[in-house]
From TrEMBL:
One of its GO terms (molecular function) is endonuclease activity. It comes from the Bacteria. This is Uri superfamily endonuclease. The keyword Cell membrane does not apply. InterPro entries: DUF123 (IPR002837). The keyword Translocase does not apply. It holds the Pfam family DUF123. Keywords: Endonuclease, Hydrolase, Nuclease.
Amino acid sequence: MSGATIPSAAADAPFGEARTYQLLIRVARPLTVTVGRFGTFDFPAGWYVYTGSAKRNLEARVRRHLSAHKTLRWHIDYLLAQPGVAVREVRRFAEPECALNQRQTGDILIPGFGASDCRAGCGSHLKRLPSRLSFRAYFGRDRGPRRFVAGCSARRGR
Ligand SMILES: [Zn+2]
């Protein structure tokens, strides 16, 4: 089994408005993964955040990421298919994916990963976190899911 852990259904934007999602990914032990023709890379154990988007039917995309049985297509598919890799949380946003990704703290270990379609210079749409706690700290501990997006917009000068 791999990638099949069902995460809590956090929703940071109302379902109908969300176009962007983040997956909080746990890699339980160090891995070396061949990502299709992109290359073979080492993934240290730890916590990762993947930021993606779907113009239509975001929920179907999220379900696909959580499914253990699928054709490997995107870079992230190859990581999620590994034993010991699980999606622990899913968050949804109305914010454009690259803006969100660039605000996301974390280290880029694999330049270009998940960024084949990126035109914003993100470098990678997969980032490794110093700890799971840093994901919590970034979003705040006890915010209501929708209040976060509202507060974020307000801080950005609306
Ligand atoms: Zn980007």
